[in-house]
Amino acid sequence: MNASHFIAEKVAAVDVSGIRRIFDRAATLKNPMDLSIGQPDFDVPAPIKEAAIEAIRAGYSGYTPTRGVPALCDRLCAKLAEEFPDWDPTVMVTCGVSGGLVLSLMACVNPGDEVIYGDPYFVSYKSLTPLLGGRSVIVDLDDGFQPDPDRFAAAITPKTKLIVLNSPSNPTGVVYEADRVRAIAELARKHDLLIVTDEIYDLLCYDGRSPSPADFAPERTLLLRGFGKSYGMTGWRMGFAAGPAEILTSMMKIQQYTFVCAPHMAQRAVLTAMDTDMSATVNAYRAKRNLMVGELEGTFEFVRPSGGFYVFPKAPAKYASGTAFVEAAIKNNVMIIPGGVFSERDTHVRISYAADNEILEKACDVLRSLAG
């Protein structure tokens, strides 16, 4: 039997994630210096672990309401009310920000609808939109990896429905400037568009808060946030979405037939997470950011990151592409990701500094020697 006959064309057209290909390569190396993975290198704080264990012992192992545990939804609404006093969104708990992204696009994108996002971009954006019959419209960010409102405006057509923003950014680590976000929000109002804002790294900011479109056009904002990156619980799949009631109701309807609900015990534990001070972790990652900047300055061309745990330097001129530089790094036991995974151009590389400082220093020694 030719099983490929049964694969939908829209799925067959989607390539396997380039990040996963690098992970497969890592499995062939002995003790690689892994600066490829977008996962925190710290453990879930003990009180949060204990809360999850106690939730299991207490029998919180069944389904929750589709929207999420009411106590958690209430806490999330209260948190957003403090941050955005003029906004009263509907909130639901999602299976990570990725789950929220899937639900938001499924709820909003019709065949032929256009979704705008900036290049470089997180890998899911490019693949999910065509899976739902939409068209990805990719707009170059400026040289500082900031969204250029004029470029976004020029990309808007009568078919445009959504703009996707991601700040702090994966892969660049850049935090968008308030004036840029405000201008994009004004575009959404002018052209009757919705902004889907992926803010998974919102707590991991090192030079001030990351502005959100909810600051400027809350009625045009569908906000996606999560707990995986900030609390070390990526595998717990905990996120939430907030936005207009009609859209969230549609997302909940889809969740009923797909994810059903986010993990019950993890939702209970997130209530403890919301009371856990993560400032020491943020300070530690700020120090890692500073370490990486110091290690790479003078050898690599890059934009100083302000959030998340990535830096996105340009590949040295002696290499034909970002992929070529990554291949050289892998041969020297350093795992990084080609920029072409996140961009229409293969000119940069993504380096994660979610690793032990000693590994960061050793890996940077290798990268500098390869660039020389």
Low-confidence stretches: none
Globally, the shape reads globular
The secondary-structure class comes to alpha/beta
- Domain tally: 2
According to CATH, the fold-level topology of the largest domain is Aspartate Aminotransferase, domain 2
The largest β sheet comes out as:
7 strands, mixed
Helix content: 40-55%
The CATH architecture name of the largest domain reads 3-Layer(aba) Sandwich
CATH 4th-level superfamily of the largest domain: Type I PLP-dependent aspartate aminotransferase-like (Major domain)
* Secondary-structure element order, N to C: HHEHHEHEHEHEHEEHEHHHEHEEEH
Q: What average pLDDT do the residues reach?
A: 95
Q: What is the CATH class designation of the largest domain?
A: Alpha Beta
Span from first to last CA? 53 Å
Tell me the radius of gyration: 21 Å
Amount of beta strand: 5-15%
Number of separate helices = 14
Helix/strand layout:
Layout: H1 9-12, H2 18-26, E1 33-34, H3 46-57, H4 70-83, E2 90-94, H5 96-108, E3 114-119, H6 123-131, E4 135-140, H7 149-155, E5 160-166, H8 178-191, E6 194-198, E7 221-226, H9 228-231, E8 239-243, H10 245-257, H11 264-273, H12 279-296, E9 310-311, H13 322-331, E10 334-335, E11 337-338, E12 349-352, H14 357-371
Parallel strand pairs: 1-10, 3-4, 3-5, 5-6, 6-7
Antiparallel strand pairs: 2-8, 7-8, 9-12, 11-12
Helix pairs in contact: 3-11, 5-10, 12-14
